[in-house]
Amino acid sequence: MRLEPIPNPTALRRVGLPAGALALTVLIASLLALLAGANPFATLGLILKGAAGSKFALLETLNRATPLIFTGLAVAVAFRARLWNIGAEAQLYGGAVVTVLLGTGALPLPSLLLIPVIALAAMAAGALILLAPVLLKTRLGVDEVVTTLLFNFIMLLFVSLLLEGPMKDPMGMGWPKSTALEKAARLPRIVDGLRLHWGFGLAFVSAMVVWVIQTRTTLGYEIRAVGQNAEAARFAGIPVGRVLVKTALLSGGLAALAGYSEVAGLKGNLTLDLSPGFGYTGIIVAMLALLNPLGVVVSAIFVAGIFVGADSMSRAAGVPTYIADILLATALLTMVLALRLTNTRIRWR
Amino acid sequence: MEQAEEAEVVLRLDGITKRFGALVANDGISFDLTKGEVIALLGENGAGKTTLMNILFGHYTADAGSVEVFGHPLPPGHPRAALAAGVGMVHQHFTLADNMTVLENILLGTGSLWTPRLGAQAARARVAKLSADFGLSVHPDAKVGTLTVGERQRVEILKALYRDARILILDEPTAVLTPQETTALFETLRKAVALGLSVIFISHKLGEVMAISSRVLVLRHGRLVGEVSTSDTDRHKLAEMMVGTEITAPKLSERTPGPALLTLSNVDTSRRGNAPGLAGVNLTLRAGQITGLAGVSGNGQAALAALIGGLETPVHGGMDLHGDVPADWSPRAALAAGIARIPEDRHRTGTVADFTLTENAVLECYADAPYSRKGWMDWSAAEGFAKKIIETYDVRCPGPSARIRLLSGGNMQKLILGRVLEAGPKIILANQPVRGLDIGAVTFVQNRLIKARDAGAAVLLISEDLDEVTALSDVIHVIYEGRLSPAFPRGTMTPAQLGTWMAGHGFEGGADAA
Amino acid sequence: MEIFDILLSASFWAAVIRIASPLIFATLGELICERAGVLNLGIEGIMVIGAFAGWMAVYLGAGLWAGVLVAMLAGMLFGLLHATLTVPFGLSQHVVGLGVTLLATATASFAYRLSLPEVTSPPKIEPFQPWEIPIVSDIPLLGPALFSQTALTYLAFALVVAVSLVLYRTPLGLALRAAGENPASVEAQGLSVTAIRMGAVVVGSGLMAIGGAFLTMSAFSSFFFEMVNGRGWICIALVVFGAWKPGKALLGALLFAAFDALQVRLQQTPMGAVVPYQVFLMVPYVLSILALILMSRRAEVPAALMIPFNKGER
Q1: CA torsion, ordered B497, B500, B502, B508, to nearest 10 deg
Q2: Confidence of residue C313 (pLDDT cuts 50, 70, 90)
Q3: φ/ψ (deg, to 5) at B239
């Protein structure tokens, strides 16, 4: 077989194929539910209900979407420049560590100043963490996929070290968790009484900012050129290495905001299970959004909904909650395939 | 060449038609090939020659028509079937694995994949015999990555012969050879024909077609427009058949060269992968003069282009830009110095395929006003620039917001030409500017270069096509293993003399011993 | 000095070989994929599914070797998925690889929870037992280290030789290497690039899964969620370190395992009382990054790695 490009795919192809991918994903989820001895329709219904069936559920979904918007943006920005940042997890923890460091009384500042200072410091930490693999890539040609992946493991051990040592909460009754953030450093809730913090607002604004950067600025143009064809970009005089470094700073900073907002907005302290793989899930979020920053918001809410919904469904229907991961992995794979088939056709001979 | 008494037909193509979307690449093509003859398939770029041969060899499947080899129908779409039927193909872009030896490349896929042994010993003996019989000397244990272009081609031919090919297809085989290597290739082909093989020789070079073939088939826009016996025709008639009109060679008016705009003195650069770097290069590019660079590909042309284009810095020696010695040499510095660069590969380095024409138009000037101000892009200014290029340079396209990947090679090249010439450059680096273009685009590009020369620009024309270099240049240098010959003024050297330089004769410590 | 005591103990060297074994399987698997031109980032997940499937099969009553076979088949299944998406469809090997890792890991977790909903700690199986080779296992130091390992370890070492022979001495290996260097050369000689690359990915994935199965069936006798713990990623670094050659990759795996075994033992020494244990645990990952940096200047990477081949496109 061979693939032949279609210059102008029909609307049917462009809508039908992604829809087909979604249908296939739902079908597989149904089969898994059947396998677990549950009614597939009830299972899917419960996931939907758990994700958006009540005000509480919806807010929970938006809360869960917040870090995913950040990591999704981090991945989208990096992948756009064909910089394979698989290390959003490490950058997230970097941001979280700095948040705790500065947010537990180290800076005697009023809340209005303290919050942005900590957020910026967290971003700087994340940016620095990604800088190392990127410099290794641009200077020595070391593949960043493996280095960023390995950094995740190193970072997690480092956090564990901190939580059992210098950052350990003396009141924590032996649990490896950090001291709680002071009140002034916490992100307030958007509406009093509703469990949704300003981290979500920040995530939304970040998405807009990234969109503006990509479409309207010179840097955005450079990033896209480097990602689409680095050789042509270099030939044309675009400083490829410098653009990659800038991209990395942006991407690492965004991922760090995920850690920041989780600590300052939701948890209030740092534990080793702060992120159940938000960094990795960010890849799915970004890919489902076709690397479009505004799309990331939508796809992060969708992905968060699946997780939140699967959690509550699992309690009710007894289907293991890991169905959510299978669902998302399937969605990712079928979606990239659907996109390929949108603008190519298969010729068997 | 003489026709056999009863010409045995070894290959018959019947009504081959192939479409790519709206484009009809081959339109009902039929012909016969008989035993022991060389037919030339002549046509300009894009006429459908390679597509036709790819169908014959099974890379593509025809939409209609059939192929018969030695009287048996050839199942379409399988190179394996073509090979088994005795069809061997020497591709224009060599199909060799650089990390393996000559012998391994020849052996690849010849037997069952599931036998535990390579059978290298027996193969070595056969390859040695074939080498001797056909005059194709090459070391069987050399890594292909270390071979010259000419040697690689010999490996390609050996691959086909090793599989008992009775029909040999050669796709633009001389494009990368020196005139002397071409002569040697023709010698090999004559030996092959004498041994009863048949050859299809694909080319757009009229002289070679006249020299080697017994029959010429002319393709134009996917159609077979003529079939003549070589003895009944001449270059002019063939040229007319090929393009539909008579080709007018570009004309250079007499012009006194101006001052030196770029001078390289004794420049060395580092190696580029398998290709040599420059070694002790002295070069002067003068205003109002086209300097042609002839040479077999892979002899340092890339290094020279990279140096002048700003991608490479000298390890030794100096570069002087009309009195300025550049300190920080980079593509941007080259652009700032007024150097226009037409890259060798317009797909890989010249354009970003998924960018629009607008985005591609500003690829080199996006950071300057009015396209960029304080870090913000002004897309309407950029689009204005693209529209101007589209009009001035006759770029046929749906519009400035179309993706450039949809354009033909010629239109893509015109956009690049516009992009670099609109800035009014002092120096123009034209690296293979017409490769792969159809005749209309070739003329357009060449005339633009001449116009720029007449307006006072210094042009460096790098080409592997010796005819192109001799036709367009005021002075010619030959490059060989990173070294430059002296400057030969227009008309002082015959192609054969240039050919000996291209093979390394005349260079200090060159190939004189060989 | 404790380090010398450690280096002179047979148990240390036995541990090195043991730690290296799963890495050898998986590194060879990845090497086969990459030599054919396909980066397989599914490796981490495929090791997980291999670890789970082999263990589960034995837990459900299959023999140990049948368990290995099940693990291999499970790995090949996910390899087939990766191969189908990346070879004929030419999708991003990065994205698909990560997707396959996620899918395989999630599938293992899902199946584990489904089959053992109630348990808090995973049941143990009777794993492969050390198999002392007569006479040679009595050699001091070397004997216990090299010749009283489990059958899977011997298999790992045998595979290094086998893969080398196939790659460099057989028509199949020739085709595989050519597919990773210049697929057009394979196509022009009448072979199918698609078939060779898919075959390589499927077989390579099978080996990765056996590497995972080694963990549950030879090393730990139980399945834990986080047990592969980045070993797949480390193997990708080992392929680079080994310059895409089986022998050198084996050397890399042994070197790596030696450091890993050493750090575990150093934790027990007075040094371990001063330095937090997490620092020791970082050693393998830091080493992998160092290996990548060290090898970065050597350009021996298969020329067509990660470049999809579309028949007839040029």
Answers
A1: -110
A2: low
A3: -60, -45
Q: What is the mean pLDDT of residues B46-72?
A: 91
Between CA C219 and CA C214 the distance in angstroms is 6
Model pLDDT for residues B337-373, shown as the tens digit of each residue:
999 999 999 999 999 999 999 999 999 999 998 999 9
Alpha helices in B328-433, H assignment, sequence order: 331-336, 357-361, 379-392, 409-421
What phi, psi does C80 have (nearest 5°)?
-65, -40
Q: What is the pLDDT of residue A226?
A: 97
Within-domain flag for C103:
yes
Cα–Cα dist B334/B328, whole Å? 10
Domain count of the fold of chain B? 3
In this prediction, residue B250 carries a pLDDT of 77
Mean pLDDT over B188-203 rounds to 94
> Is residue B157 included in any domain, yes or no?
yes
C-alpha A36/C-alpha A313 separation (Å) is 12
C132 domain-assigned: no
Residue A83, min C-alpha distance to chain B (Å): 17
Q: Tell me: do B141 and B201 sit in the same domain.
A: yes
For residue C174, pLDDT over 50 is answered with yes
* pLDDT number for residue B3: 47
CA distance B299 to C85: 40
Average pLDDT taken over every residue of chain A: 94
Residue of B481, B365, B495 lying closest to B418 (CA atoms): B365
Residues B276 and B213 in one domain: no
Average pLDDT in the A155-167 region?
Answer: 93
Taking the C-alpha atoms of residue C137 and residue C132, their distance in angstroms, rounded to an integer, is 6
Q: Which helix (H) or strand (E) holds B206?
A: helix B206-212
Per DSSP, chain C holds a count of helices (H) and strands (E) of 14, 2
If one counts the domains in chain C, the total is 1
Residue B315 and residue B290 in one domain: yes
Residues B394 and B441 in one domain: no
Sequence-ordered list of residues with C-beta below 8 angstroms from that of A82, at least 6 positions apart, any chain = A226, A227, A228, A230
- Shared domain for B486 and B403, answered yes or no, is no
Touching subunits of A (3+ CB pairs, under 8 Å) are: B, C
pLDDT over 90 percentage in chain C: 75
| pTM of the complete model | 0.93
Which of C153, C199, C209, C267 is closest to C37 using CA atoms? C199
**For testing the chain C interface, which of B45, B63, B95, B152 should be mutated: the one with the most C CBs within 10 Å?**
B95
**CA triple B399-B401-B405, angle to 5 deg:** 90
Substitution target in C34, C85, C238, C292 with the highest count of A β-carbons within 10 Å is C292
For residue C256, tell me if it sits in a domain.
yes
Which residues of chain A neighbour C293 with C-beta distances below 8 Å?
136, 140, 142
- Chain C from 154 to 173: CB within 8 A of any B CB: 169-172
Please state, rounded to an integer, the average pLDDT across all residues of chain B: 90
- Angle, CA B197 vertex, CA B194 and CA B202 arms, to 5°: 110
Owning domain of residue C110: 2-114+143-295
Highest mean predicted confidence (pLDDT) among A321-330, B21-30, B112-121: A321-330
Q: What is the CATH number of the domain that holds C81?
A: 1.10.3470
Gap between the terminal Cα atoms of chain B:
31
Residue B451 structural domain: 260-338+425-513
Q: In this structure, are B26 and B132 located in the same domain?
A: yes
The pLDDT of residue A29 is above 60: yes
Cα gap C262→B127, rounded to integer Å:
53
Q: Quick check: B426 pLDDT over 50? A: yes
Domain ranges of chain A: 70-289
Whether C304 maps to a domain, the answer reads no
More confident: C80 or B437: C80
Do residue B197 and residue B281 come from a single domain?
Answer: no
Q: Where are the alpha helices (DSSP H) in B393-483?
A: 409-421, 439-454, 466-472
